[in-house]
Amino acid sequence: MAKQISFGTPVNDAERWAFSLLADELPENYILLTNVEIPTKSGQAMEVDALVIGEWGVYVVDVKGYIGRLDAGLHAWSLDGREVDNSLAKANYVARVLAGNVKHTIPIGVYAPWCQGMVFVTGRKGEEIELEKQQGSLSIYTPKQIVAALTKEWGLTAPRSHQVTDEQKELVLQTIGQVALVEQRNNKIQDFTKLKCLFIQSGLEVWQAEYNPGDWTAPWLLKILIPTQFADQEQSLTHEQQLREEFKRLQALTGCSGVPYCAPLVQDGEQLVLPIRMPRGVPLNVLEIDSLTTYQLLEILRRSVSGLQQIHRRGYTVGGWTSNCLFVSDLGDVEFIDIKDNLTDNEDIKAYAEGFLHLALQTKQPRIYQWYQQAAKGETLDVDGLRCDLSALIDNGVCDTLPEKLNINVGAIIDHHYRLEQFIAATQTSQFWRATHIQGQFNCGVSVYSKVEAKWPTLSSLYRSLSKLHHPHVEKVLAFGQLPQSEELFIARAWEYGASLDEITNIELGQPVMWFTQLLSALQYMHQMDIYHGAICPKNIICNQEKAILVNFGIGLDIATSHYASQYADPLLWAAEGDAEKDLYGLVASFIATLTPLNLQGDGGQAGIIHALNSFDKAWFGEKTFDTCMKVLNFEFDAVPGANYLEDFDVVDSLV
User: Fold this and answer.
1) Which UniProt keyword terms apply here (predicted)?
2) CA separation, residue 144 to residues 23, 49, 91, 130, 470 (Å)
3) pLDDT at 590 over 90
4) Do 608 and 597 meet the contact criterion of CB atoms below 8 Å apart?
5) Which CATH number fits domain 499-649: 1.10.510.10, 3.40.50.1220, 1.10.3720.10, 3.40.50.970?
6) Strand-pair partners of 199
7) Is the distance from CB of 233 to CB of 286 less than 8 angstroms?
8) pTM of full prediction above 0.70
9) What is the CATH number of domain 412-494?
């Protein structure tokens, strides 16, 4: 690509197309001056379409947009039989004038470069032109040969060929005069000065620029659209619309972190310019992540996901996720300079995770890089949870080595989020604490369990599912994981006010039916999701004035061994039953055991619970409800998929 300096405006489409071709195809060390004037001795000036300062000579190029068959001779020309001007004669005359001017300015001992005329016949943008030269040496060329003629030695008409030196090029530019001023003028767009071309292709240009309104400067990017350089008007209008839409997006996203500031569009009649403040830092693909600390990596990830969230909340998506369009500053700021809004939110999150996964892996923090791995596969979309985790790790401190074993006591911080405040209860293998969510400053419950390593895979899958589901009568899981340097498991859940079912001393009329109905609705919902509690007992049912909540899914066998449902039943029958039937048995047995005196329950086995149920007045209990409970206790109830438990137990009205 040659260096082009435009002294004037092209007068027709043929010149525009010719200049674009020459600028694109000529080598980098060539200088292309367009619509330049050559001064004569008399003081008059002769305009030249193009002046090419090349490797072998200086060429005065006259551009002709002739269409048809051109017969060119030494003295006369004809186009499709009609006489036309001999443009080569004019170009040669101007070349001789230029050569004379150069000779008068060169110092002693320096040779003047060879100057010659040349005619470029364009046809219709390179087509529909035939050239017949009466002498093959005439410097008249079509688009097929013009670049070769300007760059190869055979294109010279000089008796001897010598390469043009840099000093000779400077002499030619001095002879033309004010070239530097013209170049500066061409590179000036309002208060922006173009410095370096980063991209150019058929009417689209991206320049590194400098904003210099007075005594200070700032780096910017200029996206420039030149309509006349497109192949057709439709293509030009399409790209113009895209540039205007990009401006609207950036304006709509003003104030969002990660979005560079843009100035208003500049339109001067010849070009449309979108100025965008140059992003701080370096592109992601050249960021040296090996030299960054864990804290710096986490900060980059936090700011990147914050920017993504803010963009999504404005109703837009990034879309432009190539690594050279993502900039990271020394302070960890992340900016997206190619916001296309061409993906859905889910697709955008997936693309984001793919782009930043290598940074997440470098943190060596499993909770972080596992999120990026899952999101890159489309398995998670929980951006809020990721941002909270990143903030917790940064605010509470992490180290580049494995964390130390945690001592469970007041003030201990679990998973960088939860500070233990008050001990509530414990058994031989579990503890329950009231905790404070450090970032959110709200109460939550934290349970710590030991000796559950054998059940870890099952529990991990179960609690990942629970964390994504919501039912008002099922514990709301906030976090689940393994404590560092141990085999202990922790579960953080929303704080539920109340007491376990067997610890309630004052039970008001109607409450047991309300609680039982609520828990039935919860079981029905969970069972439809193939999620089973597996340990329903009075200690795993928390009740208050308003509702009952199931807690400790999959664990809790140790919480109240004497109240666990499996002890109510025949072990052989229990082992043969399905998961749904076990949950229903545990629910019914828990309420019967809690609401009847111990002397009616016998040893607490199946027969004792059935005897306790028979102590109720069947009419008061509800005939259908009584019969269904009896079937459940006798393992005669079949929980078919999609069954409506509320109808089976005849408690639909109780839920309302």
Assistant:
1) Kinase, Serine/threonine-protein kinase, Transferase
2) 15, 19, 20, 11, 71
3) no
4) no
5) 1.10.510.10
6) 206
7) no
8) no
9) 3.30.200.20
Q: Taking residues 540-551, what's their average pLDDT? A: 90
| Cβ atoms < 10 Å from Cβ of 492 | 22
Cβ atoms 214, 270 nearer than 8 A: no
- pLDDT tens column, 255-296: 888 898 888 898 877 789 999 998 888 999 999 988 998 889
Q: What is the rounded distance in angstroms from the CA atom of residue 304 to the CA atom of residue 226?
A: 34
Counting Cα atoms < 13 Å in the Cβ hemisphere of 570 gives: 10
**pLDDT computed for residue 396 by the predictor:** 64
pLDDT tens for each residue of 190-228? 777 777 777 777 778 888 888 877 667 788 888 989 887
Judge contact between 370 and 380, C-beta under 8 A. no
Beta-bridged to residue 449, according to DSSP, are 430, 489
Q: Is 422 exposed, middle or buried (0-12, 13-18, 19+ CB in 10 A)?
A: exposed
**Distance from C-alpha of 130 to C-alpha of 68, rounded to nearest angstrom:** 6
Model confidence at 166, pLDDT cuts 50, 70, 90, reads confident
Q: DSSP state, 407?
A: P
Q: Which two tokens stand for residue 638?
A: 């079949």
Residues in Cβ contact with 464 at an 8 Å cutoff, skipping those fewer than 6 apart? 480
Mean pLDDT of the chain: 83
Residue closest to 339 by CA, chosen among 312, 311, 320 = 320
- Sheet bearing 430-437, strands edge to edge: 413-414, 418-426, 430-437, 442-449, 489-494, 477-482
The answer to whether residues 154 and 133 touch, using CB atoms and an 8 Å cutoff, is: no
CA distance 101 to 611: 122
223 φ/ψ angles, rounded to the nearest 5 degrees: -95, 115
Structure tokens belonging to residue 235: 């293509």
C-alpha to C-alpha distances, 464 to 66, 78, 453, 491, 600, nearest whole angstrom: 74, 84, 17, 11, 41
pLDDT in tens, 447-470: 888 876 666 666 666 776 777 778
Sign, CA torsion 517/522/527/532: negative
Q: Provide the b/e sequence for 428-448 (b: ≥16 CB within 10 Å).
A: eebbbbebbbbeeeeebbbbb
Whether pLDDT at 548 is above 90: yes
pLDDT reported for residue 182: 59
How far apart CA 181 and CA 313 sit, in angstroms, is 48
Say which amino acid occupies 225: L
Strand, helix or coil for residue 52:
strand
For residues 500 and 515, the answer to whether their CB atoms sit within 8 Å is no
pLDDT band at 563 (very low <50, low <70, confident <90, very high): very low
Tokens representing 76? 């006369």
Fold of 190-277: Phosphorylase Kinase; domain 1 (3.30.200)
Lowest mean pLDDT across 30-39, 52-61, 208-217: 208-217
| H or E element that contains 611 | helix 606-614
**DSSP states along 464-498:** HHHHT---TTB--EEEEEE-TTSS-EEEEEE---S
Give CA 177 to chain center in angstroms: 50
Amino acid at 622: G
Instruction: Give yes or no for residue 399 having a pLDDT over 70.
Output: no
